Amino acid sequence: MSTPAMTAPRPAAGRAAPDLLRSSLRVDGWSSAAFGLVMLVGNTWLSGPLGLPATWSVPFGIALLGGAAALALIAGYPRIPAHLAVTVVVGNTLSCAALLLLAFTDVLPLTGLGRAFLVVGALVVAVFTECEFVGLRRARNAGD
Question: What is the C-alpha to C-alpha distance for residues 111 and 50, in angstroms, rounded to an integer?
């Protein structure tokens, strides 16, 4: 006696597009929340090695937690509104530029490690931005 093979149902062709956008938003949200908590909880400890004053890391941490909450809300929509996804892509692009500006100017008394920290942060934001942009484009092409 043979039993039929159990395979997972394949998603419809258009279903993969919103999933990329939704997944990117969720991972971006969770990583923003984690980074925000690190900036808040470790602001005193990070100040020495990075040269990032607590007067900057606390507002960064709060902004990251707010952004994480917004990303979670957007990702939770049954159908992600395109204008909100575009807002995320634009916001991430501006955040990436701001991190690079802070890393390569003397606005903050950063150490070499602090500069590297901001550059790596900018690269991470750039990757999320690209994933969300591609997900948005695919969702638009799929008609979602």
Answer: 5
Query: Going by C-beta distance under 8 Å and a sequence separation of 6 or more, which residues neighbour residue 41?
Result: none
- Residues 36 and 68 sit within 8 Å (Cβ to Cβ): yes
Sign, CA torsion 120/87/40/50: positive
∠ at Cα 22 (80, 77), nearest 5°?
Answer: 35
- Per-residue pLDDT band at 16 (split at 50, 70, 90): low
Question: DSSP for 14-46?
Answer: GGHHHHHHHHHHHHHHHHHHHHHHHHHHTHHHH
Domain definitions of the chain by residue range: 17-142
Other C-beta atoms closer than 10 Å to the C-beta of 71 total 26
- Whole-prediction pTM value? 0.83
